[in-house]
Amino acid sequence: MTADTEFRKLVKDSLDHDRACVVSDEVDPWLELSAIAAKKLGTTVFFEKLKGYPGFRAVTELLSSDTKCERFWSKERGDFLSMISTAAVSPQPCRVVEKAHFTRRLKSLDELPLPRFFSSDGGKYITGGMILIKYPESDACNISFNRLMQVDSMHLAFNIHKGKHTDLLCRDAEEKGRRIPAAVVIGTDPAVMIAASAPAPWGTDELAVASAIRGRPLDVVRGPYTGLPIPAESEIVIEGYIETDKVPEGPFVDYLGVMHGQGTGRLFSVEKVYCAENPIFHALMPGNSQEHLELMSLPVEAEIAQRLRKLTRFVDVTLTRSSGLFHVVASIRKSTDGEAKTALLAMLSSYPFLKHAVVVDENVNIRSIAEVEKAIALCVQADQDVIIVSGAKATMVDPRSTSDLLGAKMGLDATRPINAGKEKFQAVPWPETEGKNE
User: Fold this and answer.
1) What 3-state DSSP class applies to 208?
2) For the chain, which domains are there?
3) Of 13, 205, 254, 385, which one is the catalytic site residue?
4) Catalytic: 4?
């Protein structure tokens, strides 16, 4: 496979270094693709032939682990998180070029291999697509992952999280009665994928954030129809308008594997569809996809790490994948008993979907559920070490959030008290055998 773009380099890197699965038989995007990929969650699956779509290929679970990300960017975990948090506040300009990777013109959405993942889904879906729109007061662009359901050959309905920047921009346009020029980008530079997931400040040019993550300018071309700056190395690009109309969207199985019933989505009117030669369709798997969780968690972990470095001697942080990113655990090297609770408040306020936070001492392996549970069991007194915040901002994917997206959050200080002896909390090591009977 020719690795002539950063996205294709990432695909090739995964095929070369991971135990990737290459499917050479023709596969139907209608339920068959997802059935095969679901058996390999966490493992990259590359589909060489798609039934009914000659020349198209597809890939799932591409950025599905910390290891893949660290290897592709050649950075240790701590440096990788610092790179993301720094890029979000120190964006670098993009470079406008004339030549695009996506030179082939398609007639409509019907020529794209949009998968149907579950029989209960409302239709065919784009799950690895990022919607790109401009902030009205500047040339800065917002880009975010949103699932898009095909309505017909020239329309999509997309789900949007309440309060996210894309939602606020759409609400503002709706109040003014205007539609928004927009583009959907599928299969592009991995730095753009990270930037699209990062909680950057309002008004930040997230394509410039991608440039900062790359360490060099991101090449963009002016969209042939909208004039928007579009990542030049994209596999598939859809140009059109976000209308003020609302349309049915769903049902759809979300990243937690839970069914979301039919709701109301925004309408995307398609004007132009482009793709590269022999394009690779990037599909984010719903239902416990490790790639989905990785893309969501990395920018939040970077944000929390940056916050905690200002408050305490920070060691490490992880959003637990098994909790669907509702749980976060951090380790610190505390010097006063109040530091852990301050850290908890910073963690819980970092992102709406976080429900439960735990802070442990530096000697605890935060990626071991057993060690974290032991720290909770030994160190937490419920009347002293638990913080509960009611009526906090929540997320639509939390089935216990209210209709106006409010919920409760809990923090556990599972660090040992400063004045308590370590021997009460640490396991006693087994004696050495000195080589006898080994």
Assistant:
1) helix
2) 65-281 (2.30.110.10), 312-424 (3.40.1670.10)
3) 254
4) no
